Amino acid sequence: MTMTRNLAAMTVVLGGLVAAACGGGTPEPAPATAQPVEGQVVAVQDTMLTDVFDASGVAEPVQRAMVSTRLMARVIEVTVREGDRVSAGQVLVRLDARDLEAKRGQTDAGLAAAEAAHQEALAQARRIRALYADSAAPKATLDAVEAGLARAEAAVRQARSAGDEVAAVGDYATLRAPFAGVVTQRLVDAGAFAAPGMPLVVVEDQSTLRVAVTAAPDAVRGIRRGDRLQGTIAGVPVEALVEGVVPAPGGNVMTVNAMVPNRDNAVFAGSAASLSLPVGTRTAVVVPAEAIVREGDLTGVRIRTPQGSEVRWVRTGRPVGGQVEVLSGLNAGDQVIMPPSAAEGR
Question: What phi-psi label fits residue 313: left (phi over 0), alpha (psi between -120 and 50 degrees) or beta?
Fold first, then answer.
């Protein structure tokens, strides 16, 4: 009996081992159930998109002035620093103008002498005219005083012109901002010596920027003054108003100039810029940007299926307004599920 029970126990153990070996070890997990649909469902449709060519360029200030002088004089004061905002007419630099003051005194004295001589010549001419009218003075005498009066009048005009010239040159002793803007360069300090034509301060009006890009004639064929183009300045999306399309020097290319408002100087002049030039249309699949799901380097969307919803990985293209172009992985008619938070905000 004892031997019989032992044989039965061994049979049970061997049977369990054989069953485990035949089953392949740990049982496979049951398939995951599909997730329920949560959020607004949006049907994918073919959309007509405008193909664009992104032309690169630079954003420059619409106004830029290199303030210089016509004088050769010592700088006695520089009232601004780089980065300062200035208003039109604000004093930027003062030069030593003592030589001009002396010359202004000379011209004032010369003008006074010329005017006195003119008054004397005018009085003499009046006397001789009266005598000539009474036949008490010969014609030669009248001609002589008339000529003297003309010379006196010319001397007055010359003296006034000399005074105006000194005053005009004197304006270069006090240099002012030609327009409201920002000081981008301060090139001299007090004590330096300024020469005619030498830049002293650079002022830029960066409230509006001009973006200039070049492209082939075919790329700009449909662009006209007043058109609005999308673009970027230093990576910041902007909208530009086309100012004009002109031939570029030195090649079979065209230049597109466009103006971009730069409120609060949000971007810096001289930054890299681009304009998206429309070159045609095509049909494409787009989805709302809020529907995009990202996991690491993967990009996908959640779509509705008969079992519920699942994530489908796709390849995306460029953004189009508040949507994103899908290059592959979706077809027209697929149903994309918006996240609940995005659906509530729409």
Answer: beta
